[in-house]
Amino acid sequence: MTPPEAPEVGRNHPGNKPPAASVCASAPLTVLKKRSDFLKAARARRQGTSSMMVQARKRAPGEGVGIRVGFTCSKKVGNAVARNRAKRRLREAARAVLPEAGRDGWDYVLIGRAEVTANRPYDALLDDLRYALRKVHAAEK
C-alpha cells in the first residue's frame, strides 16, 4: 500500500507533487525560531553528551503548550554542508525521541558538536539524547 500523499504508479508527472508537509504519526514538535526563545533556554538547564549539548527549560504557565525544540550548530562544527548535516541528524533524533521522552510545556535546544554529531552512529545519537533528557528532568525533582 502506498502512502496517501504518493502519486499513483505511472502517474508521476511534474504536476503531481506530494505535499511538502511532514506526514509523521508522532506528536508534532514546534520549532523554536525566535532568538529570545534560544536565549531563555541558554539560561536554563543544560546537559552535555559526547555528541551534543541539550539545553532545556520549563516554560511559564502562559507561554504555550506542547514540546518546542530548536537546533543550532556553530561554525566550529564545520562548513555549511557539515552544519546542515549535523542539524538534519539532530532533527531526526528529536523527532524520534522527544515525543516519548520530552515533557509538555518544555523548550529544548539541541546544539551540535564539532566532528561528532554528523559522524556518530544514529543509535548512539538517540541514546545520547535520551540520556541528556533523563538528566535534565532528574534535576527538576
TrEMBL record:
Q: What PROSITE patterns does UniProt report for this protein, alphabetically?
A: RIBONUCLEASE_P (PS00648)
Enzyme Commission number: 3.1.26.5
Residue stretches spanning the membrane: none
Leader peptide range in chain numbering: none
Q: Which GO terms describe its molecular function?
A: 3'-tRNA processing endoribonuclease activity; ribonuclease P activity; tRNA binding
Show the GO cellular component annotation of the record. ribonuclease P complex
Region ranges (Disordered): 1-23
Question: At the top level of its lineage, which domain of life is listed?
Answer: Bacteria
Q: Name one Pfam family in it.
A: Ribonuclease_P
The reactions it catalyses are:
Endonucleolytic cleavage of RNA, removing 5'-extranucleotides from tRNA precursor
Which InterPro entries does this chain map to?
Ribosomal_Su5_D2-typ_SF, Ribsml_uS5_D2-typ_fold_subgr, RNase_P, RNase_P_CS
Q: Name one GO biological process term.
A: tRNA 5'-leader removal
Main EC class the enzyme belongs to = hydrolase
Record's keyword terms, sorted: Endonuclease, Hydrolase, Nuclease, RNA-binding, tRNA processing
Q: Is Hydrolase tagged as a keyword?
A: yes
Q: What is the annotated quaternary arrangement, including any partners?
A: Consists of a catalytic RNA component (M1 or rnpB) and a protein subunit.
Function summary: RNaseP catalyzes the removal of the 5'-leader sequence from pre-tRNA to produce the mature 5'-terminus. It can also cleave other RNA substrates such as 4.5S RNA. The protein component plays an auxiliary but essential role in vivo by binding to the 5'-leader sequence and broadening the substrate specificity of the ribozyme.
Q: Which family does it belong to?
A: Belongs to the RnpA family.
UniProt protein name = Ribonuclease P protein component
- Taxonomic source organism: Ruegeria atlantica
